[in-house]
Amino acid sequence: MRFIDTHAHLYLPEFDADRADVVALALTRGVDTILLPNIDSGSVLPMLAMCAEFPDHCKPMMGLHPTSVTADADKELQLVKDELARGIYVAVGEIGIDLYWSVEFQEEQVRVFREQLRLAKSYGLPVAIHTREAFPLILDVVEQEKTTELTGVFHCFSGSERDARRIMDLGFMMGIGGVITYKKSNLPEIVAGIPTEYLVLETDAPFLPPVPFRGKRNQSDYLLYIAHKLAEVKHLRLDEVAAQTTDNALRLFSKTEQH
Ligand SMILES: [Zn+2]
User: What does the alpha-carbon distance between residue 22 and residue 25 come to, in Å, rounded to a whole number?
Assistant: First the structure.
């Protein structure tokens, strides 16, 4: 069985002491490809260093995270543009709108998000979207920018049935993470109604660990707990979940296996 962790921040300091062990452990579980989304100018070097250390297993994305959008967003955006021009990235991410922590830069977040969607279109890359407290605003923006070449994933999906419907109508996918294992989550019922071809797996490590690791650091081998839960919710065997979600991930992030 082969799995792809489509969203993990294994380059963060939380993994400085045991990064190679975390990758090795993921490999023993069949998680042989890990996609690393960027956050801002501070994360580019550690992310690329990790990809250089594990070139067969770690692939980078490039983007400016919405919580890093502040008054100097244009300088950050310029770095994203310069990096994308190198042609080494599998996606534009993570990008989006996050109104949970602050609405101070809401307009700026929308502008920067829209500009990065356009960059994705011009490079023919998929996008990895982060959103918090911003449905349906973010869907409005994606719908406005939608063209046949614009595709991507709503990472850590936890929206409503209606949000899921609009995402599928856009031809986008949903990233399923640890939240699906949480007891109080209604995500299992919503995911039960989403065709499996719209789903990819992710950990978002070191954040959002699945049950039974809540409160601890998340890591890529825990993807199996998410996959097991998804198998239960969809009444599929684990190997079917592995095959389908890996297939979806490779279709969406098609540069992952090009050399
Ligand atoms: Zn993330």
Answer: 5
This prediction has a pTM of 0.97
pLDDT in tens, the chain (259 residues): 999 999 999 999 999 999 999 999 999 999 999 999 999 999 999 999 999 999 999 999 999 999 999 988 999 999 999 999 999 999 999 999 999 988 999 999 999 999 999 999 999 999 999 999 999 999 999 999 999 999 999 999 999 999 999 999 999 999 999 999 999 999 999 999 999 999 999 999 999 999 999 999 999 999 999 999 999 999 999 999 999 999 999 999 999 987 5
DSSP 160: -
Which tokens is 84 given?
Answer: 């994308």
Domain positions in the chain: 3-257
3-257 homologous superfamily = Metal-dependent hydrolases (3.20.20.140)
By three-state DSSP, how is residue 123 classified?
helix
Q: Distance, CA 244 to ligand 1 centroid (Å)?
A: 22
How many residues belong to the chain?
259
Distance 202 CA to ligand 1 centre (A): 10
The Å distance, Cα 92 to ligand 1 centre, comes to 12
Centre of ligand 1 to C-alpha 249, Å, is: 16
Ligand 1 mean position, distance from CA 232 (Å): 25
